[in-house]
Amino acid sequence: MTQKSEAVPETSPIPYGRQHITEADIAAVVETLQSDFLTQGPKVEAFERAFADYVGAKYAVAVSNGTAALHLCAMALGVNEETRVITTPITFVASANCIRYCGGTVDFADIDSATALLDIERVREKLESKPKGYYSGLIPVDFAGNPLNLEKFRKLADEYGLWIIEDACHAPGGYFYDSHGNKQICGNGQYADLSIFSFHPVKHIATGEGGMITTNNELLYQKLLKLRTHGITRNQELMEENHGGWYMEMQELGYNYRIPDMLCALGISQLHRADAGLARRKGIAKVYDEAFSDIAGVETLQTNKVAIDESGDTGHAYHLYVILVQNRKGLYDFLRERNIFAQVHYIPAHTMPYYRKLGFKKGDYPEAEKYYAECLSLPIYPSLTQQEQEYIIEKVKEFV
Ligand SMILES: *Cc1c(COP(=O)(O)O)cnc(C)c1O
């Protein structure tokens, strides 16, 4: 066992992820503060357009956070008490909770141990074990930034008449190659009905709080716009009556899930640097890969095969860099004492007290639980310095 270290840490605290704010970002926010709009101004649409273009989707709807994005998706797809949905236990709980917000039933399928992604074969078994129509949808997650093979998920979903919400919070800028060799960018609307993103500070693009939904489906797009703002429309073509210039209609029960203009200005500015940030993340991941390739006792997750091309270029977006070690708690504490704040992603959702109360129990998804026992996310973010990364690698090696 490791001893409690009395040594003064050799570095200032290194978190597992952090935002990167530049002078240009600050200027963009200040400019909006001095404009006529703090919220619901031109920056919202501009951010939506820029983000839709970035991922190659037709439509984008900016919202107050990633969880709100998930909730609105579930509402737009008509999730209710009759709805049953399958997601992965290795995700942030919001991926599952959005179904519960609408009264629906959450089910899980186990992960593929090599990638920690939702295992499509386990999903297929679940679907086959019930009559058609039993399940309504799937919420797969591009976990850690590792892109799912959504083409395969789409095929399966179509066999069973299911919709797909892609939780792409970890994967802005990620991509995989479809069976025709075409690049498919996460969130491009090609295979998923809806995709969602988060702009929390640890994510690639940070606005403090913020989220985005992308889709190629115009009907869903129109629903989302309405649900984001109380279920109200001002679009004359969609209204049942019209009493004059002031008139608007609340047509269903929506929420205030809007994102302010200030934050969209920040988002647009951050989006300009998204490719550079992504390249830096890939660079950091490569250094970790090489450092741990010959270290007994440190395993790494595999990149989905469909995300790698012949040149070795990767579509992995590296929100997280996960290693697997036997004594995970030991390593976590050892690194913490040395000012390296590694993190664990994730505690399997089905083992949370809330989901246990709904009938799930430990042992239900053994691959997810085995993964959880060993996983540790090492720091990865664009402003992580080479020196800091060397220090992290040295300390991990020292421990194992
Ligand atoms: C961050 C995250 C969310 C939630 O996003 P918020 O903006 O924090 O609400 C949902 N799913 C995944 C996989 C996430 O990483």
Automatic annotation (TrEMBL):
<dbReference type="InterPro" id="IPR000653">
    <property type="entry name" value="DegT/StrS_aminotransferase"/>
</dbReference>
<dbReference type="InterPro" id="IPR015422">
    <property type="entry name" value="PyrdxlP-dep_Trfase_small"/>
</dbReference>
<comment type="similarity">
    <text>Belongs to the DegT/DnrJ/EryC1 family.</text>
</comment>
<protein>
    <submittedName>
        <fullName>UDP-4-amino-4, 6-dideoxy-N-acetyl-beta-L-altrosamine transaminase</fullName>
        <ecNumber>2.6.1.92</ecNumber>
    </submittedName>
</protein>
<keyword id="KW-0663">Pyridoxal phosphate</keyword>
<dbReference type="Pfam" id="PF01041">
    <property type="entry name" value="DegT_DnrJ_EryC1"/>
</dbReference>
<dbReference type="InterPro" id="IPR015424">
    <property type="entry name" value="PyrdxlP-dep_Trfase"/>
</dbReference>
<keyword id="KW-0032">Aminotransferase</keyword>
<dbReference type="GO" id="GO:0008483">
    <property type="term" value="F:transaminase activity"/>
</dbReference>
<keyword id="KW-0808">Transferase</keyword>
<dbReference type="InterPro" id="IPR015421">
    <property type="entry name" value="PyrdxlP-dep_Trfase_major"/>
</dbReference>
<dbReference type="InterPro" id="IPR020026">
    <property type="entry name" value="PseC"/>
</dbReference>
